[in-house]
Fold each of these.
Amino acid sequence: MIKDFEYHAAHDLTEALQLAERFGSRKRFVCGGTDLMVRLKEGLVNEDVIVDLSHMAAFSYVREESGIIHVGAGTRHADLAASPVLLQHGSALAAAAAKVGGPQIRNMGTVGGNVANASPAGDTIPALVVLEATVSIASIRGVREVPIIDFFTGPGRSVLKPDELVTEISFRGTGPQEVTAFGKLGSRQAMTISTANVALFFRFGADRHIVEARIAFGSVAPTVIRAPKTEEMFRQLPPAPSWDAVRGAAQMAWKEVAPIDDLRASAVYRREAVVGLLAEAAYETLARGAHEG
Ligand SMILES: Cc1cc2nc3c(=O)[nH]c(=O)nc-3n(C[C@H](O)[C@H](O)[C@H](O)COP(=O)(O)OP(=O)(O)OC[C@H]3O[C@@H](n4cnc5c(N)ncnc54)[C@H](O)[C@@H]3O)c2cc1C
């Protein structure tokens, strides 16, 4: 049985921040409720006050301003997946959102919830990491901005303080000669939590060499990680590399990830999975051309 809670709906940011200040660590935010409901049913929520953010109309948006993409924390996965702005200037995020759960989860779950939940398997997180996103965090004391890679401190843990909430995620939109991609392996593909996932960003030079590579993996370490040695391997590839060359570069990921055995997969399986996922995503991306959209 789910225990009783005191419930408060916030209708705007000021109200949310005042409720956060008033109840501090006694309260738990809820937005889409897809993660929280599972925890409530399992008796894993210690707080006794729920502050509902889902009535905050101005909390859901994707917009581009002077090359920066701004995503409201309350934006649902279905809206991210269909966003023309993201499909053109951050397609890895749209692709990741399209693979979160099934349609019902995507119609309820939000990007802010996915990030705040701080699961190493959260699908939007590797995409946001390769986009070098910034997380905007608000409290009654003001707003602070944290690079997404520094936001997570362990599985299910982040730098968020009890009176703080995530308001926005922003990043520089991809431009000409820049591409991003996302790949995921789950026991039932798009329906489930990732066994492993990968996101990549490539920027090409004039001769179609990869001059900048960013690669991030999820579900293979306590938090989502960047893979600098693997990125270096991709920078050394010739223009229009063969499948064998791409697969060879991706092989470095085997050494860079640090997965554990758990209910969803063994560590060895996950190491093999990230190599295959990365090689496939990278090869398809390189074949697609040098632009998003
Ligand atoms: C059947 C099922 C399948 C799923 N499949 C996937 C999947 O494939 N990939 C994946 O990544 N996830 C998956 N999930 C997990 C979940 O749907 C996502 O993490 C989703 O994005 C959570 O968003 P939400 O708005 O529903 O979060 P909520 O459940 O509302 O909140 C989650 C946590 O974040 C906190 N929170 C929410 N919003 C904020 C905010 N703005 N500021 C601060 N804290 C906040 C809440 O307090 C809570 O602790 C699945 C869940 C279920 C039940």
Amino acid sequence: MHRNDKTRQKKRERPGVKSLRRWLTQWLAALAFLGLGVVCSVIYFATTMSFVERQNTTLWQYKKIIQHLIEEVATQGDIETLRHKLDDFFFGRFDLRLELALHGERTTFPKGAITERSEQLRSVDFQVPARWLSDGVMHVTLALDTSADATMLTRLAWTLFASALGGTLLVSYCGARLVRHSLEPVNELAAQAKQLVPERLSERLDGQTQAEEFQPLIMQFNAVLERLERAYVQLEAFNADVAHELRTPLATLIGQTELALTGTRSSEDLLDFLGSNLEELQRLSGLINDMLFLAQVDRGISARAEIVNSIADLASEVLEYHEAALAENGLRGAVLGDASVAADRALLRRALSNLLSNAARYGYAGTCVTVRIGVESGKVLLSVENVGEAIPPEEIDRIFDRFYRHDVSRVHRQENNFGLGLSIVAAIARMHGGSVFAHSDSEITSVGLSLVPARRTCI
Ligand SMILES: Nc1ncnc2c1ncn2[C@@H]1O[C@H](COP(=O)(O)OP(=O)(O)OP(=O)(O)O)[C@@H](O)[C@H]1O
Ligand SMILES: [Mg+2]
């Protein structure tokens, strides 16, 4: 790693921020020490057990020999022979000690071979039949000096401990390097992500050379970028649309005001002029209010939910309000079906009003505009249906876009229409946890929204 990288690494290690590298290395070290500790302990105890076993075997073999030597003694007079034999047997065997009780006197073989200070003894007491003794048995204690084995075990313990420690250090060092190496792709991805600037919105993270485990992360990150790009493009288009929509009425207002200021105007002319300016300004104010509403919904405000027991009643009220507009175009209105829903009444009225004003505009004279209310797959569907020119299938998904107005509407377009009505319907549906839908087929167009039924609504 370069020096710069190290400095960057240090800067990144902020207090309170967990370092994955440190965490993994520490765990590797702990596990290595534990694992090696267990192995070393097993080795130590297995060695101790085999030493003990060997000592017991040795003692057993010597016990048999001593028994044999004592049993060979037939009479009192053979005691001296026994002493000689035992002296010969124990000559130079400083790791062994034998104690016999002969006529109440304890005799040791070999003499002074093992001092009390250095003694680490494993001993065995036994009796040998001896008819020539007054009590008929001889009491014998045979002991084996195990201090050499003990020293060896101590050395083994230290060696194993040092090996475990050394092994742990080695595993920690290699583990740290391995972890650093395996996390390098993250740095590479971070470097790639750093290159992603708004000017290069279409670029994505390149995951081709990355490990399989990073693929879900890269995919999700790229999906987020995709959504961001779409939102960014929409925002840019929205800004351009807003500027475009404001430019024409403002230019009209400025032109009219300049005209009014040139020459002398009668007070009636000025009143007319002010009246038309007020209309234009009210239209602009409506546009700005709609945009503000959409901006608030984008920021995530939710609807104030109350139980609307009968959507049909609410729809009839809104239909009544649009009666004049419908009648003007030779249309009739009707409400079919009913359901209850938890929703904000005012917002629901607004959505329905937008749908009805479209239907009133695009419905053929002499036909009927129907407000349909129904429940399907656990959702309340509220739609407005009219008979009129169909929306082309390739355009149907775009009608909910902000400022979208299809060509077909040009015939009907009035200056008052900005193309925000259905995006407001979509926003209202979103605020209630629902969605919008539109079908247009053989002159029947149905546009509406789905809502969550009253009992399941959690807004
Ligand atoms: N019932 C319908 N029949 C045919 N086309 C429709 C219908 N409803 C909507 N559209 C199309 O969808 C477009 C967008 O509708 P929307 O309500 O968003 O805007 P608008 O009615 O043009 O303007 P605004 O609602 O802001 O006054 C319309 O311009 C029209 O082309
Ligand atoms: Mg509309």
